[in-house]
C-alpha cells in the first residue's frame, strides 16, 4: 500500500510519541526524525532503524520526497520554520502554539478546511475541550466558554512550560474561532500529585438556549467521534445544566504508545495530528502524488 513520506522536527516527548503512532499508520511513512542536538529521542529513533539528523529543518528541506512535516518544537522555532516549509512545498502540521495557519480540530473542522500549507493543532487542551464547546454551541448557542485543563507536572516537558502564555492565548482563541463561543478563556494547571493524575478538563459554557436534552445528545455524539482516534477520551462528568450554565468534565487517558498513560494531554494532540496527516495523505494519494 502506498504511503506518504513524513518528517518530524523535534525529538522530544511529543515528537517521539508521534513517531510511534506514525509507525502504526497505513497512510504515513516515517521518513525522518530531526533535531539540533544528539538527544535521547534521536538515539532511540536511530536504534529503531529510522533516518535521523541533528541538522534540524535543513535535513527536511534537503529531502524532496518528504511531503508532510510535523513540527514538535516550540512557538518561536515554528515561526522560522513555517515560511521555509511553505517555500519548499511541504505541508506543515504545527503542534506548537505558534498558530501560523488555521486551527484544526479533526472532529470539528478538518473536512471544511481547504488545502492549506500550514495547519495548527491548537493545544492539548484545545483538542480536548473545543469539540465539547462546539457541540454545546451547536445545540444551545454559546455566549461564553471557559476551560480549566489540569495535567500532571510529569507530563509537562520543557516545551509546554516555555509556552504557557501562548498555550492560554491560543486555546482561548480556538474556543471562539472553532468552538463558536462569543468569548473564551483558558487556564492550565500543572498538578504535582503522586501518583500522576490523568489529564482532566473542566468545561464551563454559558448558553443562549438552555436545552438540556439537546446539549447532552450533542456532547455524547462528539465524544464518540473523538474516541475514533483517541480511545482514552471520556466524559468523567456528563453535562450538568444550571440555569444558562453548562458544566462538564472530560478525562483523557493516553494510549501508552511511548508516553505513560497519564500523559493524555500529549497523546490527544499527537493522535489528532496523525489523524489530520492521514486525511491529507489520502487526498494526496487520490491525486496521484508520486511516493
Mind explaining what this structure looks like?
53% of the residues are buried. It is built from ten helices and eleven strands. A hairpin with a 2-residue loop joins strand 10 and strand 11. Helix 1 (13-23) crosses helix 10, helix 6 runs parallel beside helix 8 (164-177) and helix 6 packs across helix 10. The strands form two sheets. It has a six-stranded parallel sheet, with helices on both faces. It has two domains: 4-121 and 269-286, NAD(P)-binding Rossmann-like Domain (Rossmann fold, 3-Layer(aba) Sandwich), CATH 3.40.50; 125-260, Dihydrodipicolinate Reductase, domain 2 (2-Layer Sandwich), CATH 3.30.360.10. It starts with a strand and ends in a 5-residue tail after the last helix. It has helices spanning 13-23, 40-47, 57-61, 75-87, 106-109, 124-140, 158-162, 164-177, 212-227, 264-286, and strands at residues 4-9, 28-34, 52-53, 68-71, 91-94, 118-120, 142-152, 184-191, 199-207, 233-242, 245-252. With 291 residues, it is α/β, with parallel strands linked by helices.
Looking at the overall shape, the CATH architecture of the largest domain is 3-Layer(aba) Sandwich
Task: Using the alpha-carbon principal axes, give the shape.
Answer: globular
CATH superfamily of the largest domain: NAD(P)-binding Rossmann-like Domain
Give the class from helix and strand content and strand pairing.
Answer: alpha/beta
Strand content: 15-25%
Kindly identify the CATH topology of the largest domain: Rossmann fold
> Mind describing the biggest β-sheet?
6 strands, parallel
Rg, please? 19 Å
The run of helices and strands is: EHEHEHEHEHEHEHHEEHEEH
Number of helices: 10
Helix percentage range: 25-40%
Spatial gap, N to C terminus: 11 Å
- Provide the spatial order of strands within the biggest beta sheet: 3-2-1-4-5-6
Number of strands: 11
What's the CATH class of the largest domain, please? Alpha Beta
The domain tally reads 2
Uncertain regions spanning at least 5 consecutive residues: none
